[in-house]
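Aim 2 progress. For Box C/D snoRNA protein 1, the working sequence is reproduced below.
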Amino acid sequence: CETCSKEEAKYRCPRCMKYSCSLLCVKKHKLALSCNGVRDKTAFVSVHEFTDLNLLSDYRFLEDVGRTADAAARHCLVHSPATKRLLYFLRNKARGCNIELKTLPVGFTKRRENSTTFNSVENKFYWHLKLVFPHCHAEYTLKGVPDDKTLTDILKPYIDPVESDPVVCQRLKIYTASPQSDVRILMKIENRNRNSIRYNELDASRSLLDNLKGKVIIEYPTLFVVLKTLKNDMVVLGQDGSEPAENSDSESSSLSSVEEGEIRDSS
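Predicted structure tokens for this construct:
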């Protein structure tokens, strides 16, 4: 058992492949790793390990996607003039800010979640925003984040030793205990091949709007907060868009399958 290291393992988690000996240890590992225990249908499987069972699973996954996409295409909101006007309005306003905003069909999870709005009176976006803390396996969703708010202020309730919520602070203690200079904020570069996932590093001292300019956003921004002192497999492009000098080909994002699953998820 990988939880208690005492008893012989009887179960294996379909999600993270951790071995457990009892229901208690199963619950403990789910809590510790924020694991939901549901098999990731989009997880990478190498050619050498690919079996007929994986092929059947992929076939069923594609069938589910096809059914859901067809149901979404028939959804009344897809053909609603008000919905089309709203999406066109948001994309047009984003384009005016030098942001390429892309929206997904109605049936997709990110489309349902997205609460981004634009205030014409203030001429300001209020973004739906997701913060991911990979080192602690934690993520938080924010709604109505004004585009003129700096990233430093956005992160204060989470990683600031003084201003953060005590419960959140305890969960993210590896971040709160680290100097602010070690914190890096990354955002995935969209429209790249899955085997070539790359990230842009954002400037914490600048506003959310300034950081999003010139970027492609699918529904809403997802920011990854990492620490320089801890190893991670997220390849960051340079300011000029060039590949990093070292390990540019060997490194790949361990989070790519999770993100791809979120985008492809339409259940």
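Residues 82-227 form a domain with the Ubiquitin-like (UB roll) fold (CATH 3.10.20.90). This observation will guide construct design in the next reporting period.
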